[in-house]
């Protein structure tokens, strides 16, 4: 299932494993299918949970049950077997499956299923609720757009976390600090402060301005690579991967490599 | 897990797409525009201490064709040294593998913004003449712009004009796939019409084949809209310039809904617009210089190529040009008549 390839990382290239959760989910190998489920859960559980809460107006408990059940059914019922990448995006397919599940599920049946085949990783529904509370929902959002945005938020959040961990592991915590202060600084959250200049950031972190720009460029490059890896994992086809990269990052990867069928 | 607000998401998007300028002489300031194949960033050239604009390739380019096109655009710009054409300072490949070129950072406003301002018709026409000068110069170097429109023209604070975005320019006289016409600058500089010579040699050579449509609807001529690449010549740019003139004078989008010639414009100007934008290239001005000359003649109150003289029109023009003198003479004559009248009675 693994294959080495050249994947663009913001212009540079690096050897990557073109592993696709969609392909793995259809394989006969139980371990591969488990891994596929984990990747899909990581990418989609929050968007799915928030979507059920908002689109269907379900209570916290019901939304948690339905989210758990959705992902357990995803593999148990081999739902992904019927997904055809050339006919649409995985996200659209998953959202349709969620709608179908919620519309038809009966509460008792759901409860009976709880626990069986549920994702191994505990889902932090509390954090999902906290994120929901921070969204401006004064106007009812258009649900397709909402699902898209939450999916993007999920991918970016995981990307930031992975970047933090990888840079720390490489002894480059200062790189992440520069990235965090410059690119993650949020005026809404942290007050009406403008983004610091390179010089101000250098003074703050005791770095020369050239170090600041170099650290920032490195961290951005790595962040982009990580996001592309995450996208590749959950794309159904090469075309979808390129499209997703374009939508999420503003430009397509230069050389995506093929997802092994 | 890190909570990312919508604004933080936007910043991350920009950050992930930002060019890697480490180990270069440039320091990124901000993105200032985005086009079909590239983004434009404002950067500081730390060596010379000046601001520049960087155009960086931004689309998938596994084949390298787009990179080649951007490099080609930079080479075309480097050859077109003219005050009305944005100068290129540098070109190369960034550490992240993306092709870029650095050009002058133009502070000013786009022509469409300028047109919304209070400029008078003569001022607008003088701006238009400068655009024509730049395009005529490019034609003399065998380069067609092919995407002339208000968005691609910058007007500086002192009325200076810069024609931008030569990304789809067509070079006549180069071998297929080559970036720039293979003729010496000396020869071109001394040639009255290098483009005409290239056309006579029948060597239209650009890497777009017949059927490829390049340009902007509303500004591209019919032959370009039909993808008849082989028929595109300097009169195609004349058409686009005619549409730009129409826009400048009517302050409305060019195209079928643009102010019809004669409705809002003085008849001679309407005739200029009409002649420049005829569907059939043979009926348009033969060159940008002819178009610019007609505009200049209009400003000077002279007869136009697009608006043939009749005795009545000539008389009207003479009257308009010399009306102060005519009024003075008439006033003098009237005074004399009145004086004679009073003396006799």
From the structure above, extract its key features.
heterodimer, A: about 260 residues, mainly alpha, two-stranded antiparallel ribbon, 2 strands, about 65% helix, globular, disordered N terminus, disordered C terminus, B: about 350 residues, alpha+beta, Phosphorylase Kinase, domain 1, Transferase(Phosphotransferase), domain 1, 3 domains, 5-stranded antiparallel sheet, 3-stranded antiparallel sheet, 12 helices, elongated
Structure description:
The complex is a heterodimer of chains A (261) and B (345). By secondary structure, chain A is mainly alpha-helical. Chain A contains twelve helices and two strands; from the N terminus they run ββαααααααααααα. Chain A has a domain at 35-139. The longest helix of chain A has 27 residues, at 143-169. A two-stranded antiparallel ribbon of chain A has the order 1-2. In chain A, a hairpin with a 4-residue loop joins strand 1 (4-8) and strand 2 (13-17). Chain B is α+β, with helices and mostly antiparallel strands and 345 residues long. Chain B folds into three domains: 9-104, Phosphorylase Kinase, domain 1; 109-308, Transferase(Phosphotransferase) domain 1 (Transferase(Phosphotransferase), domain 1, Orthogonal Bundle); 312-344. Chain B has twelve helices and ten strands. Chain B has helices at 6-17, 65-79, 111-115, 121-140, 185-190, 194-200, 222-225, 234-250, 267-276, 288-300, 311-321, 323-344; strands spanning 26-34, 38-45, 50-57, 88-93, 99-104, 109-110, 143-144, 153-155, 161-163, 170-171. In chain B, the strands form three sheets. Chain B has a five-stranded antiparallel β-sheet with strand order 1-2-3-5-4, covered by helices on one side. Chain B has a three-stranded antiparallel β-sheet with strand order 6-8-9. In chain B, helix 9 packs antiparallel against helix 10 (288-300). Chain B is elongated, with a radius of gyration of 25 Å. The model of chain B is unreliable at 175-207 and 254-263 (pLDDT under 50). Chains A and B meet through helix 6, helix 7, helix 8, helix 9 and helix 11 of A and helix 1 and strand 1 of B.
């Amino acid at each position: 299932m693994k294959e080495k390839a050249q994947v663009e990382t913001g212009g540079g290239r690096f050897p990557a494993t073109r592993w696709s959760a969609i392909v793995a989910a259809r394989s006969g190998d139980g371990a591969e299918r488990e891994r596929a489920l984990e990747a899909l859960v990581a990418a989609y559980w929050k968007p799915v949970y928030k979507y059920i809460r908002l689109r269907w107006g379900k209570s916290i408990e019901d939304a948690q049950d339905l989210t758990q059940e959705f992902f357990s059914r995803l593999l148990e019922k081999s739902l992904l077997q019927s997904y055809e990448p050339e006919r649409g995006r995985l996200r659209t397919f998953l959202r349709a499956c969620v709608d179908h599940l919620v519309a038809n599920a009966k509460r008792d049946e759901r409860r009976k299923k709880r626990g069986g085949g549920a994702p191994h990783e505990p889902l932090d529904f509390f954090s999902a609720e906290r994120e929901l509370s921070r969204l401006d929902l004064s106007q009812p959002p258009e649900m397709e757009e909402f699902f898209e945005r939450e999916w993007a938020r999920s991918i970016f959040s995981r990307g930031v976390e992975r970047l933090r961990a990888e840079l720390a592991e490489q002894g480059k915590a200062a790189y992440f600090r520069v990235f965090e202060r410059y690119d993650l600084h949020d005026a809404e959250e942290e007050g009406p402060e403008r983004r610091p200049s390179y010089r101000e950031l250098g003074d703050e972190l005791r770095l020369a301005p050239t170090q600041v720009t170099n650290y920032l460029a490195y961290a951005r490059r790595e962040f982009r690579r990580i996001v592309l890896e995450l996208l590749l994992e959950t794309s159904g086809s090469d075309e979808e991967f390129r499209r997703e990269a374009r939508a999420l990052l503003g430009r397509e990867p230069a050389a995506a490599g093929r997802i092994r069928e | 897990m890190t909570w990312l607000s919508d604004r933080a998401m936007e910043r991350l998007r920009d950050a992930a797409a930002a060019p890697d300028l480490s180990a270069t002489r440039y320091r990124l300031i901000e993105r200032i525009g985005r086009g079909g194949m590239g983004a434009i960033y404002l950067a500081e050239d730390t060596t010379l201490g000046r601001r520049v604009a960087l155009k960086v390739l931004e689309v998938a380019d596994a084949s390298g064709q787009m990179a080649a096109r951007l490099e080609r655009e930079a080479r075309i710009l480097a050859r077109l040294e003219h005050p009305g054409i944005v100068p290129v300072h540098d070109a190369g490949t960034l550490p992240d593998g993306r092709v870029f070129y650095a050009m002058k950072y133009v502070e000013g406003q786009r022509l469409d913004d300028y047109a919304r301002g209070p400029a008078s018709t003569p001022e607008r026409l003088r701006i238009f003449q400068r655009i024509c000068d730049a395009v005529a110069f490019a034609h003399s170097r065998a380069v067609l712009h092919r995407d002339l429109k208000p968005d691609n023209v910058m007007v500086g604070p002192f009325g200076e004009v810069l024609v931008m975005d030569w990304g789809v320019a067509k070079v006549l006289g180069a071998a297929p796939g080559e970036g720039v016409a293979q003729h010496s600058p000396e020869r071109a500089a001394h040639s009255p019409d290098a483009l005409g010579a290239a056309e006579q040699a029948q060597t239209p050579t650009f890497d777009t084949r017949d059927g490829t449509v390049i340009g902007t609807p509303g500004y591209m001529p019919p032959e370009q809209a039909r993808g008849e690449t082989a028929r595109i010549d300097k009169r195609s740019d004349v058409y686009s310039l005619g549409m730009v003139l129409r826009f400048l004078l009517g302050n409305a989008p060019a195209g079928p809904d643009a102010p019809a010639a004669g409705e809002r414009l003085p008849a001679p100007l309407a005739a200029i617009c009409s002649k420049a934008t005829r569907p059939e290239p043979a009926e348009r001005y033969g060159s940008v210089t002819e178009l610019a000359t007609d505009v200049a003649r209009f400003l000077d109150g002279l007869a136009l190529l697009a608006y043939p003289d009749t005795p009545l029109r000539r008389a009207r023009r003479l009257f308009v040009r010399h009306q102060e003198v005519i009024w003075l003479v008439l006033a003098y004559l009237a005074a004399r008549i009145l004086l004679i009248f009073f003396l006799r009675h």
